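Quick log. Single chain, no ligands specified.
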Amino acid sequence: MGPASTPKSHFLAWEQEYSHVIWGGPRLIDVVRTHLAPASRVLDAGCGNGRYLLPLSRVYRTVGVDVSATAVKISKSYLEKSNLFSEYAVSAIHHLPFAEKSFDAIVCFGVLQHLFEDERRAALDEFRRVLVQGGLLFAEVLGVEDMRYGGEEVEPHTFLRRNGIIYHYFTAEEMTLLLDGFEIMSVRDVKKEKTFRGRSYTRHRIHAVARLKDQNASPR
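-> predicted structure:
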């Protein structure tokens, strides 16, 4: 049975995943702070248990959205313990429940890689819809040279794991094409070598920063 006939199964898998995933502490948001003014309205698209949403909420007016209600509940509890606040919604990122031009920026770290190709394209359509003109997109995805590449291939460079979660591995060129309609500020391959039991492994991620183009501007 292909992905088109089971459109929700890989999303439902996240409920089980977040029932046992361990909070790893807040993550760095330096790249966001470099480009985005404080108090901007930011959507954390695929906020998970709040590892980015928590530090984002210290600086920005935030909304966290995730397909897992369990993840949203956990994220909210961590923010409350730190006396921080964010709005939330339970939704897949390719069907966002927000009005047009609702956000100054979108942070989407480690999420697009868990979607099928048509869902990735739909997610970018939604990002373009809910961003203001000139709004920023910060994205991070897995790269094709990552040590975890492989498994049951269901689409090119896309694998289904035993836990039901999808993993897609990007090239920088693919990421650039996905950002159609954006002014690309940077797309970077980031590779780090890890040693485990005497063997060297590569962790490969692709980082992107892009600005939504003026859709009404006349072509030069």
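Strands lie at 41-45, 61-66, 87-90, 103-109, 131-142, 152-155, 158-160, 166-168, 182-196, 199-212.
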